[in-house]
């Protein structure tokens, strides 16, 4: 079973619930790719010596790496952090995350500004393009361990929506529309 993604319902119930529409409206990897979201499935048990991960890092230029564990006991200000990650935002660089353990959700906006929820589990590596509006949350297991990858020095700056004035956002929107002005 590959990556699972779906359109979200509009309910403001706990962000950690799946929020599927009824009936469920799945989103394919191809549809995600059209939004610039890239995905790999790797063996997270061998991440320290995985040649496949090495190759992706080399091909994509992901020189920086660190590991973050997100759970109540190990992350200071857990609830605030979770709320902050769930604020809709964009970055001026790609966001690359590799789930080494546990589960989590990334939500991204489609062309019509609808939320797509991407269910991430152990072994999932995802790249969100610079300029895409997105947010992150744990699921109801309240635990994930993720590798954060970066091209060059890490920049953790998030720009909460609205951030439409950034060139990177306008470039991204133009890319979506397939326009090349």
UniProtKB/TrEMBL annotation:
Residues engaged in binding Ni(2+): 89, 91, 95, 134
EC number: 1.13.11.53, 1.13.11.54
Positions bound to Fe(2+): 89, 91, 95, 134
Single GO MF annotation: acireductone dioxygenase [iron(II)-requiring] activity
Annotated SUPFAM superfamilies: RmlC-like cupins
Keyword list, A-Z: Amino-acid biosynthesis, Cell membrane, Cytoplasm, Dioxygenase, Iron, Membrane, Metal-binding, Methionine biosynthesis, Nickel, Nucleus, Oxidoreductase
Swiss-Prot/TrEMBL GO biological process terms: L-methionine salvage from methylthioadenosine
Membrane-protein topology: Peripheral membrane protein
A Pfam family of this chain: ARD
Compartment(s) of residence: Cytoplasm; Nucleus; Cell membrane
Pathway annotation from the record: Amino-acid biosynthesis; L-methionine biosynthesis via salvage pathway; L-methionine from S-methyl-5-thio-alpha-D-ribose 1-phosphate: step 5/6
EC category: oxidoreductase
Catalytic activity: 1,2-dihydroxy-5-(methylsulfanyl)pent-1-en-3-one + O2 = 3-(methylsulfanyl)propanoate + CO + formate + 2 H(+); 1,2-dihydroxy-5-(methylsulfanyl)pent-1-en-3-one + O2 = 4-methylsulfanyl-2-oxobutanoate + formate + 2 H(+)
Cofactor binding mode and count: Binds either 1 Fe or Ni cation per monomer. Iron-binding promotes an acireductone dioxygenase reaction producing 2-keto-4-methylthiobutyrate, while nickel-binding promotes an acireductone dioxygenase reaction producing 3-(methylsulfanyl)propanoate.
Transmembrane segments: none
HAMAP family linked to this entry: Salvage_MtnD_euk
Entry's family note: Belongs to the acireductone dioxygenase (ARD) family.
Subunit structure: Monomer.
Known function: Catalyzes 2 different reactions between oxygen and the acireductone 1,2-dihydroxy-3-keto-5-methylthiopentene (DHK-MTPene) depending upon the metal bound in the active site. Fe-containing acireductone dioxygenase (Fe-ARD) produces formate and 2-keto-4-methylthiobutyrate (KMTB), the alpha-ketoacid precursor of methionine in the methionine recycle pathway. Ni-containing acireductone dioxygenase (Ni-ARD) produces methylthiopropionate, carbon monoxide and formate, and does not lie on the methionine recycle pathway.
Protein name: Acireductone dioxygenase
